[in-house]
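seq/struct pair 1
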Amino acid sequence: MTHRTRTWTPAWPCPVASIWSTWRRGTGDPTYRVDEAGRHWRALHTPTGPATVRVLPRPQAGTVEADAWGDGADWALDQLPQLLGADDDPTGFEPRPEHPVLARAWHVHRHWRVGRGGVVWQALPSAIIEQKVTGQEAFGAQRRLARRFGTPAPGPAADLGLRLTPTPEQLRAIPSWEWLRLPVDHARSATLLRAARVASGLERTIARPDADARLRSVPGIGVWTSAEVRQRAHGDADAVSFGDYHVARSIGWALIGEQTDDDAVAELLEPYAGHRYRVQRLLELAGVRHPQHGPRMAPRAHLPR
């Protein structure tokens, strides 16, 4: 089995954990593990095949040490700087004086960057599964999907239970009743199947300026899902998660002290054009959320498990 190593010296203090935090879908995510030594393990789909990548930040030395296994090992290590945000340029981003909460978040997380995953299918299934459901329900379904229908990640990750999500071909072979057992309702499973049928075409959006429109040409993929994919796969620092249950209210609360809707937040973020997702993620990393009252939304109980 192919095994490659690389030591990369980023041009800035690279915070691996916070940059890759958007890829980890819950603490039990079988596609992402952090071991006792602080090494980050990820199971990746790449253009050249599956890969396991293991990354260990060495902040005192200013380096990042990486190992990769599988047919996609060379691709994963070649793309390591982009995966960790080397292509992201925060030049021109400066919090406005009337937004002190954002200024504090930028001060604390100044070295955070938007990573570019480079593979649409690595981000798309989770984004679709997370449509209009609680995180608890979505993360549970994703765990079951990878464990039941994915494959073990290449290399020495067996003890960690690291697994790849199903490929488009594997996903298309899942019977309809199995989706309900995950549980994933028909609306989301149908969208997943439509996306799987055109997966190769969606991969070409990585290098296209009209990626948003092309992603949204698939029925069932809307503004929110497209943004969630472009944040991770395309490294789009301007892709705001409009349509999210919490995002608009939290941004409004942070910037003007009021819970707002998407239209109001779009207006608030106009001065940050080109960096609007950067605003969203910095506030998330800083733990800024709108006040929550009453019970949390409960997972739906009518689907089989």
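seq/struct pair 2
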Amino acid sequence: MGKLAFIFPGQGAQYVGMGKDIAAQYKSADAIFNEAAEALGFDIKEMIFNGDDETLKITENTQPTIVTTSVACMQPLLEKGIKPDFVAGLSLGEYAAHVAAGTIGFKDAVALVRKRGKFMQEAVPVGVGAMSAIIGLDNDSVIESCKEASAVGVCEPANFNCPGQLAIAGEVAAVEKANELCKAKGAKRAMMLPVSAPFHCSLLKPAGEKLAAELEKITLNDIKVPVIVNVTAQCVTNRDEVKTTLINQVSNSVLWENCVKTMLEQGVDTFVEIGPGKVLSGFVKKINKDVKVLNVENLDSLNATLEELLK
């Protein structure tokens, strides 16, 4: 029997109305949106269901809205007795993974990621940092280009998503320089991303320090499901390691491709992406085309996934 992993998306997957039809159909999902509003002290449910794209794009809104939607979309699966053998999330999605694993209470997680979003935005003034997606170039060549571009300013690999797809982050001039170098080395595309901060690079260390202070106020629980974490791509089963990995994650590369490979090595053959979008599903398929990849973001995808998992 193969194993099952729940995986949770990161920033950029948000859209107005996400999770709305699942919440209308499942009380357990709706309750999560209400809990988030209580934890945050404003009507986040209204923002998610009926708000506007510009408001959702603000990092301190994006982060709690995605985590809330992901955790809400997971409730029907849990209700039907579907439990994962492993959990993981891309960047922000790691918080939803910890909620799924029982490490962090949902209300604590949603309040924490709102602050995380704020700290990440404040760490680098708008216009100073940038990110870029490099398509069709091997990892070593991208790493080398970042090193060469560091003569101009900070430039580092930020996300190792899947073979031939990386994101880099740093100061604007250095990222632009790295784009040129990557293209010269044979990248199919090197394009600036529409983000408000250079996530997962050393420029965000101040955000990690502020996050550390907030994490100190939170009591973590024992981990019930192994979590594969971004910074090491290894399994964390001891709650004492969790705070360090979450702090380091802010300013270090996300090793998503290796996270998926770790789960494959552990016998996972079915991945369910839970929350808005299907970005991670695409990455998993590029890493291993033979595994089963399902997703849950609305009633149609939920019903299809339930049918597949319960047969």
